[in-house]
Amino acid sequence: MALTCTDLRGTLPLLAQGKVRDVYTLSSDHLLFVATDRISAYDVIMKNGIPNKGKLLTALSEFWFTTVLKDVGLNHFVSSSMEFLPEKLQKYSAQLKGRSMVVKRLKIFPVEAIVRGYLTGSAWIEYKKSGTVHGIRVPEGMVESQAFEKPLFTPSTKAAQGKHDENIHPDKTAQLVGHEYAKEIEKLSLALYTKARDYAAERGIIIADTKFEFGLDEDGNVVLVDEVLTPDSSRFWLSSAYRAGRSQDSYDKQFLRNWLTESGVKGRPGIVMPDEIVLETSKKYHEAYELLTGSEWKET
Ligand SMILES: Nc1ncnc2c1ncn2[C@@H]1O[C@H](COP(=O)(O)OP(=O)(O)OP(=O)(O)O)[C@@H](O)[C@H]1O
Ligand SMILES: [Mg+2]
């Protein structure tokens, strides 16, 4: 069964609800992130969910935080274990176990720290029009999905819910967060992306681009927050299917997108996915987890 919505009966205050995650205030300095099995495509959330998706994505974020990216700066991860949670939450383990994560609550910088290794999506659209990516000049004659010589830091504003983020030139980050933090965020973003990209490449996955968020801790450190390097926050491509000069299939959502388009319901709210689409999509999340972590998924 998929879990599409959490309900802790007022035990904790709900701080925010995103497309996928329900975020609760655990204490003055900790938050509880709960990744549901909700899935969105073309900006709308489906009515039914993908069983285990929230657990797989939580486990994947935890994997990056605690292994590959552990030594690239600080991150907000504290624990994903039920034992860490207070007694009053234990009775909600069916909703929380395996899909929740305690993190340090930080002051979030108002910038989406996007790193792009490949020319695709909105960057490709801008490049075709003006030869630039977020206003940065890039070499002429590049084709769609081609790798940049070096990854680009291409931030965007962090828009309020329901609004679209706006792509900005990296130099404009300083106006949002100040010069010193802007430099630090760019440096960390590129280092994190490069480390993850090289790791994933050896396992058959291209991380075409990704989005990081950062917060500030009480000691003035810039800390990696949010989810990291999941199919929801990144563009993954299968290396074996990759070919430059055309668009690439979405790693996890291609079945769903095709079905929505073919059924003429793309962009319509309240859509129920048929079992077959749920199953195919679910397989992709399992596959991403297993390829990247190198270990078999075990349901907790
Ligand atoms: N350690 C942290 N401390 C405080 N806030 C955090 C921390 N980590 C992440 N956040 C914030 O928590 C929120 C998580 O929201 P979530 O990503 O679920 O939804 P959203 O960003 O509003 O929408 P979307 O579903 O499109 O991502 C984000 O605003 C993020 O900046
Ligand atoms: Mg978000």
TrEMBL record:
Coiled coil: none annotated. Pathway: Purine metabolism; IMP biosynthesis via de novo pathway; 5-amino-1-(5-phospho-D-ribosyl)imidazole-4-carboxamide from 5-amino-1-(5-phospho-D-ribosyl)imidazole-4-carboxylate: step 1/2. Pfam families: SAICAR_synt. Its EC number is 6.3.2.6. GO terms for molecular function: ATP binding; phosphoribosylaminoimidazolesuccinocarboxamide synthase activity. GO terms for biological process: 'de novo' IMP biosynthetic process; adenine biosynthetic process. It is an enzyme of class 6 (ligase). The keyword ATP-binding applies. The keyword Transit peptide does not apply. It comes from Tuber melanosporum (strain Mel28). It comes from the Eukaryota. HAMAP family: SAICAR_synth. This is Phosphoribosylaminoimidazole-succinocarboxamide synthase.
